[in-house]
C-alpha cells in the first residue's frame, strides 16, 4: 500500500499481536516451536529418501550436516535456504502458509508431484542450456 494512501498516523502494516493471534497463528509461535514445526515438516518431506539430510541439503544448497541439524531440531533454516526449501518441499510450504493465514489449496501429495515435475523440467532446461554452451 503506498504511504500516500494512508490516513494521518496510520501504519502501512498491522501491529504484531494486535487482533492477529487468532487469525494468524505465526503470532502465537515462539522460536522453539517454530524450529520444531519446520523440522517436523522437513522430515515429512525428506524422510522418504535413503539419506534425508543429503536430499534436504541438496534442495537448500547446503551441506548435509547443516540439513541434518535442521532435521534434528538443532537449528532452523534461515532466509534464502528457507525459501529454497519452500520451493521444493510441499509439506513445509503448506505448514508455513498455514502459519501466515494462507492455507494451501492443494493436498501435499499433489503439490509434491507438481514440485517434482517442475524440478525435472528445470533440471532438463539447465542440462540443455549447458549442452548448447558446450557445443558453441
Number of β-strand runs: 0
Structural class assignment: mainly alpha
Main beta-sheet strand count, sense and barrel state: none
Provide the residue-averaged pLDDT: 82
Unreliable spans are: 1-6
Gap from first CA to last CA? 47 Å
Integer-rounded radius of gyration: 19 Å
> What spatial form do the alpha-carbon principal axes imply?
globular
How many structural domains are formed by the residues? 1
Q: In percent, how helical is the residue content?
A: 55-70%
Count of helical stretches: 6
Q: Helix and strand succession?
A: HHHHHH
* Strand portion: under 5%
Short overview:
The chain has 136 residues and is mostly helical. The chain is 60% helix and 0% strand. It has six helices and no strands.
Architecture overview:
With 136 residues, this protein is mostly helical. The chain has one domain. The chain contains six helices and no strands. The protein has helices at residues 31-46, 52-60, 64-71, 79-88, 90-99, 108-135.
